[in-house]
Specification:
about 240 residues, six-stranded antiparallel sheet, mainly beta, 1 helix, elongated
Amino acid sequence: MQFDLQLAANGAQRIEVDGRFFKYKSGTGLIRVTTSKGEVVDLMPGQGVWNTQFSSLTVTDRTGAANAGVLMAGNIDFRDDRITGTVDVVDGGKARTLAGIAFGCSGYQLSVAGEVAHVEIWNPPGSGKNLIINTAVMASGTVGQLAGVSLYNAVLAVPANPAQNKKCGGGPGVASSFTKSQATQITNTAIWSMSSGVIYKPTEPIVVAQGWGLLFTGQSIAASLLVTAEYFEDPI
């Protein structure tokens, strides 16, 4: 009925159990459960599936980090109707950080006479992840500097910084920043424009697919450009 999960990053664990119910009772983060019939469902702690017959289950980590927890399964009809003295609201951001899939990434292009600065947060081809960008901020040594922000399907010339995990001891991310300075702006349709020192938190996050980047294009000649973005990685 109760099975302990000890999953390596992106690892799988097979559970030999016959039943019609399973529930992800507790764990570090997102898992994928595949039944013996080939049915697939992604679960967060507290979620489960009833009324489906299976003879075994395969549980796969979807956080990209070590994942420990408990799965309940079998020919039972488990319910938990307890009401305790407190109500806990799931903090998705905290859960992602603890799972080691939340990151920050920054890049800096210094000012060059007669040229325009560009900074890109790049998701390489074949990364197996989407970047879900939820916050960005831009700064510059030039007062009133603006930057256009767009999705761009080519990497810039100069590598800057790899993404940094928000969890102490967390693994590296797939993204990196790249920079470029050139005489003309890279022509691309902007999603939005932002000014120096303003934190931008879009109502809906920006999804950067494999082989794409989030490009920040300076609007002033001979101006520096510093960009920092916060995001989490969503396995494809």
